[in-house]
User: Fold this.
Amino acid sequence: MAIENKEPLLSVKNLKTYFKTEDGLVKAVNGINFNLYPGETLAIVGESGSGKSVCSLSIMRLLDQNGFISEGEILYKGKDIVKISEAEMRTVRGKEIAMIFQEPMTALNPVYTIGFQIIEAIKLHLKMNEKDAKDRAVDLLRKVGIPEPEKRVDQYPHELSGGMRQRAMIAMALSCNPSILIADEPTTALDVTIQAQILELMKELQKELGMAIIFITHDLGVVAEMSDRAIVMYGGEVVERGDITTVFKNPMNPYTWGLMSSIPRIDKDVDVLWTIPGVVPSPLNFPKGCKFSNRCFLADEKCSKENPELISIEGEHSSRCWHIDKLVAEIKKVRAGEN
Amino acid sequence: MDEKKILLNVENLKKYFPVRAGVFKKVVAQVKAVDNISFKVFEGETLGLVGESGCGKSTAGMSILRLIDPTAGRIFLEGNDTTSWFMSSMKAKKYIKTTYCDRFDALVAKNSNQEAIINNLDNPVDKKYAQIYFKDGYAKLCDEIMGGINAKRKWFRKEAQIIFQDPYSSLNPRMRVNTIVGEGLLTHNLAKSSEINGIVSDLLEKVGLSKDYIYRYPHQFSGGQRQRIGIARALALKPKLIVSDEAVSALDVSVRSQILNLLADLQKEFKLTYVFIAHDLAVVKHISSRIAVMYLGKIVELTDRSSLFDDPMHPYSVSLMSAIPIPDPQVKKSRIILKGDVPSPLRPPSGCRFHPRCPIAKDICSKEEPMLMEIKPGHFSACHFPGTFRG
Ligand SMILES: Nc1ncnc2c1ncn2[C@@H]1O[C@H](COP(=O)(O)OP(=O)(O)OP(=O)(O)O)[C@@H](O)[C@H]1O
Ligand SMILES: Nc1ncnc2c1ncn2[C@@H]1O[C@H](COP(=O)(O)OP(=O)(O)O)[C@@H](O)[C@H]1O
Ligand code: SF4
Ligand code: SF4
Ligand SMILES: [Mg+2]
Ligand SMILES: [Mg+2]
Assistant:
């Protein structure tokens, strides 16, 4: 079924999240739109500072003190969770929408045992008694592949290895059968062989439990492996959006293309890597017009004056760029040279 | 035979860290961070050192550069045994006695023909020292190795440089760029202070920074720019060898490719030799001519880049490569998922250190340690069953 005909589970509309800082107003997320459909995995890709984490923290309503959602809607099953009270949000957070982080210790409390933390979450949301909750916790730990779960349930986070802590955090996030799991760089701090274990685990759990996953990462290999669709962010904006094969095989935005061409790959040899000149500017220093215009190899005068809109190319596939046709011609040239 | 010149030769390098406990801080165990590794690096090439966190890559790099003291082993740079150069004179004498004199004496006891002994030694340094020892004795050999020690140390510190992962913590925040980059030139008397700004400006341009930056402080730069300053500092002394420890690991993708290209350009221009340490196999593959794969303090496979990827011999290398996600949604890999975690180097498994996780481990694997052996010319692997596991 075409994605446009499905009912989204989560719908982010024109979301703007800002931070008040000493240097000025940081527009970390500046008008992003996307839908998340039941059971799918949506990747949010971008370099550091592009607004990926702020986007997910906005959905969870876990922003720092100086941050606020200035505009936009986040519709969860039709209800705008930007507007609901904190008390009501607590029944959504953890139960309906759960989150896992790069660093498990941000989610796990070092002074309580793994089991205690999972049991508390279960008791709060699922109204189970202590014994049933403990059984469920042990089951969950087993399900995420922690050996000897009956023993581990009484251990403290520091007694587990990095990979096991990540598994414990996943167990905690899944303890109340959320319909959305937000995973913010969940494997970035792990070794590749452990990363492979965790990615495999997440795929299996999704197949079994059916939750939708928002997978945030800067690793394009992980994106290609895990997701159905992707949005690419730059400077707090979505610059490209589409199903995963289209975004990788047929990118229509110079930033997406540049990002993909910059990475060394184990399945291909190139002598000289493609580079995007310069660095991601600080959020207070983006150029006027298109935010990528000071680094883009196709930028012209128009680009430095006016920021293009995110427009649909074909169905879901959208890009924010004045010169898509030029890009397509360039890519054709490069690919012809490769063969 | 190939006539490639060996710039760096590392022989049986070990670095153990003592673990202390109790009131008296007694040594209760040893972390065998690097446990008997050997490799050669040819002039002008890049040797990649790859492996997962804690396998001993950084420890190996720092030991080679003597930023930490190795526990055992020999480190040759351009045919000089530099091992004892950074030891106290007492330790150095002991080293010379056990490494050379005792060994030569033992050979003489077996076979009194000194000439034959010298001819049978492989390492040219061994030959040279045996000659000196047989002719003039222990004192003269000490003299040969330790004489002019300050000049020797200085030479080593000039020729062998390091670039770190986090350029911020390795650049003095209170120094301006001209001092950071130019300092070494003054200590090594390679330039007058009036020349420093000119030289530093040239170096900055070489690494892709504006020469207007010479008076700035490190915090005024982005991560990628700081990495360039770190590279400029390493280049300033025109070294032969640069050890790069996760130099691009903290950088964003778009900046990382800039630095990788820069390192490749500089290598060509200055005929640099790199030891490139990284955990990211795709990055290591891109930049290296040969690659050593480490696991728990050991080298498990060592070969040129294409043999490693086309014809891997060690089950760990195979698993490691298979674990890397490929940025192409149409490539569906069947992945080898290793069980369990990387064991602690405090209590490494018996026999082959990989055996608890190895998909094809047999009885012998937990009993006997496989040695690093040359399976094919130039292709080394430490496995009882090399090449039998392909995923
Ligand atoms: N000063 C020290 N004292 C005790 N143990 C140490 C010390 N330095 C390193 N180790 C241990 O030695 C082993 C190898 O460490 P090393 O830093 O060389 O790993 P690495 O391969 O560089 O890992 P990474 O990819 O995380 O940088 C680890 O188990 C580490 O904990
Ligand atoms: N608490 C905060 N105060 C001020 N600025 C912030 C805060 N949190 C994030 N930002 C800024 O918002 C932008 C987006 O950050 P983030 O979403 O964390 O990026 P990433 O894509 O790496 O996850 C960055 O410029 C960051 O510096
Ligand atoms: S609008 Fe212009 S600057 Fe922006 S991405 Fe397109 S071509 Fe580049
Ligand atoms: S020696 Fe045995 S355990 Fe070790 S890698 Fe080879 S087959 Fe596996
Ligand atoms: Mg983030
Ligand atoms: Mg290291």
Summary: Chain A touches chain B through 46 residues (CB under 8 Å).
